[in-house]
Amino acid sequence: MIGVETIKEKKRKKKQPEVPAYLVYETLDGMPVYYQGYKNVISGKQTSEEIMGYGALQWLIINLLKDYFQPIFGKTHWILSGEGGLHVSHKTNPSLDFVILPKSAFSLKTAKNKYIETPPRVVIEVDTKADFEALPLSPGSYYIKKTELLLNFGVEEVIWIFTQVEKVMVARPNQPWLIVDWKDEIEVLGHRFSIQQMIDEAEKE
Question: How far apart are CA 64 and CA 72, in angstroms?
Fold first, then answer.
């Protein structure tokens, strides 16, 4: 009886469709992280474009961050946004929403069409596009794992902005991680501001 069940299980596994590479959001220690909603794309219920794009609030915050930090750090740093890839090690390529990276890392003449390999000084993530149902990790474990990978690679500050609960997590190497409200000030490369302040200033213009 056990042998029969095992054969059935193997058949079910074989029937499961393979996930195309373009539906892999990132890889962490060899673990593929799929885009949220990837099953709908495989089944034909949605297109890949429908699940890969930012939501309106995420998109707005990412662009506000770029506008806010460009005049502050733009002379010496690249202010990059839009789901770029970072090559940390073999089979570890996290996707990043927003980074502040020294201009000494590369120039327009030396940049190539591949993932960056230099640790950004700052990484800011706005929510995530990861599909937690397909992960062997809980949502909390995923955020911790990705944050630790970035810090261990040499990123100085990792910041998560959670839009649903309006919270911000700030992580730095060898320091306690902080979780604060949008209205509370956080520090980015010595510059203090709050997400709420940034939004309020943008809406006044």
Answer: 13
